[in-house]
Automatic annotation (TrEMBL):
This is Aminotransferase class III-fold pyridoxal phosphate-dependent enzyme. Belongs to the class-III pyridoxal-phosphate-dependent aminotransferase family. GO terms for molecular function: transaminase activity. It comes from the Bacteria. Its cofactor is pyridoxal 5'-phosphate. Pfam families: Aminotran_3. It comes from Albidovulum sediminicola. The keyword Transcription regulation does not apply. InterPro entries: Aminotrans_3, Aminotrans_3_PPA_site, PyrdxlP-dep_Trfase, PyrdxlP-dep_Trfase_major, PyrdxlP-dep_Trfase_small. SUPFAM superfamilies: PLP-dependent transferases. Gene3D superfamilies: Aspartate Aminotransferase, domain 1, Type I PLP-dependent aspartate aminotransferase-like (Major domain). Keywords: Aminotransferase, Pyridoxal phosphate, Transferase.
Length: 463
């Protein structure tokens, strides 16, 4: 593939970046002597930087977002046409794309009913937290306010969502955090918990039962919500063990706890179904989403609830404080739902859910083949086009390799023209997972090129 025309010399752009831009998740000291990376164009699975170098993007925009790939003119046109007609009005009123996308979205989510638009995944999760807290006041005299979250899960970068963050390195130096958030153990089978030093049978159910123990310790009458990712993302691409989610659902019903599923990463096709929770037959009270909703073509996030949750906020119209008194300014932008409608059409018409399942299986199979060759791979796991390989220094002890070594593998892949991800600066001592989340349009050749680069990188770093 030849590089698209990049236009004029980009020296001014690079210098403006160096002088004025504050990048996300990056230490800027090296930019005093090297150029910051500037991405210029994208097409399909490929991106080009300011130097004209082409790379395969195996992480969908760096943070699991560009689900239908780059260069989708129909999405751009849908956004353009909507912005010319009506770009914005506060979401205290409706809009044509906002109403139509809400309808289309709910059609994909049996049991769910209402869509609250907001600005980002972090904020979508905060909306659910606020709803749970307000329900605690409306229904339980303010007592049932605590929100449980899981070790290694991530729900956002605001102070409230960091307070519900199970990745300790993400929250260091940002405290004190908000009270009322309580951690429950992770469900990672590869690094399974043990009971009295002995292996546990039916580990999925046992891992879920550890949540119940926390509930009982806190007092069931104080716990209002449980927030979990269907597949833990940045904490290590952790797929839940068999029986886990069914038991979680039972526990929530038993103690009248609202179940909040964070689909910011997994939502809208990433795992091979519209939403990750749909693999497990559970019925949540809240589902939040963001990244893949419009594949990054416009900003949009949603907090979706059941009708039962919605009804709690209009049960007494005479109460001046009884409704959900909240607004997200850019939840009123029409570009997001306009892009999301076309994004959903593309996924349907191009059969991308089926492709995600097929290419996800190919990715896992390729990684397992590499596992036979490279003893540094201790575990391979994934769901759809959301896959991870955990790197260990010793398979017997499961001692993790260093984060520096993982970064070296990522760097070697980058040098080969393939962008992969990794867990980093998240879980102390356990930032040792290679993360793959290519666009849902990935072909067999794309997958083979990505895993081929990993093969060569592992050989170079570990021998």
């Amino acid at each position: 593939m030849t590089i698209p025309v990049l236009g004029n010399d980009l020296t001014e752009v690079i210098e403006a970046d160096r002088a004025h831009l504050w990048h996300h998740l990056i230490q800027h000291k090296p930019f005093e002597t090297i150029d910051p990376r500037v991405m210029v164009e994208g097409k399909g699975m490929r991106v080009w930087d300011a130097k004209g170098v082409e790379r395969i993007d195996a992480v969908s925009g760096g943070v699991w977002t560009v689900n239908v790939g780059y260069g989708r003119e129909t999405i751009a046109k849908a956004v353009y046409e909507q912005l010319v007609k009506m770009n914005y009005f506060a979401n205290s009123a409706g809009s044509i794309p906002g109403s139509l996308f809400a309808k289309r979205l709910i059609e994909k989510m049996p049991g769910m009913s209402r869509v609250y638009y907001t600005n980002s995944g972090s904020e979508a999760n905060e909306k659910a937290f606020k709803m749970i807290r307000q329900i605690a006041h409306k229904k339980y005299g303010g007592k049932k306010y605590k929100i449980l979250y899981r070790d290694r899960d991530y729900h956002g970068g605001t102070l409230a969502t960091m307070s519900a963050g199970g990745q300790d390195e993400r929250v260091m130096q940002y405290g004190p955090l908000a009270p009322g958030f309580v951690r429950v153990p992770h469900c990672m089978e590869y690094r399974r918990h043990q009971q009295d030093g002995a292996p546990v049978e039916n580990y999925g159910e046992w891992a879920a039962d550890q949540i119940e123990k926390v509930i009982l310790a806190e007092g069931p009458d104080t716990v209002g919500g449980l927030c979990l990712e269907p597949v833990t993302a940045g904490g290590g691409v952790i797929t839940p063990p068999e029986g886990y989610w069914q038991r979680v659902q039972e526990i929530c019903k038993k103690y009248d706890i609202l179940l909040h599923i964070d689909e910011v990463v997994c939502g809208v096709g990433r795992t091979g179904t519209w939403f990750g929770y749909q693999h497990y037959g559970i019925k949540p009270d809240f589902v939040t989403m963001a990244k893949g909703v419009a594949s990054g073509y416009a900003a949009i996030a949603c907090c979706v609830t059941t009708e039962a949750v919605f009804e709690m906020f209009k049960d007494n119209p005479d109460d001046p404080l009884g409704y959900f008194r909240d607004i997200s300014t850019f939840g009123g932008c029409t570009a997001g739902p306009a892009a999301a409608l076309e994004n959903m059409r593309i996924i349907e018409d191009e059969g991308l859910l089926a492709n995600t399942v097929a290419m996800g299986e190919r990715t896992v199979n390729n990684l397992r083949a590499l596992m036979e060759k490279h003893r540094v791979i201790g575990d391979v796991r994934g769901k759809g086009l959301f896959c991870g390989a955990e790197l260990v220094a010793d398979r017997q002890t499961k001692e993790p390799v260093s984060e520096k070594q993982v970064a070296a593998v990522v760097g070697e892949c980058f040098a080969q023209g393939v962008i992969i991800g990794s867990s980093n600066r998240s879980v102390p001592g356990l930032n040792n997972v290679l993360c793959l989340s290519p666009a849902l349009i990935a072909t067999a050749d794309d997958i083979d090129a990505i895993t081929g680069a990993i093969d060569k990188a592992l050989t170079k770093v570990f021998g």
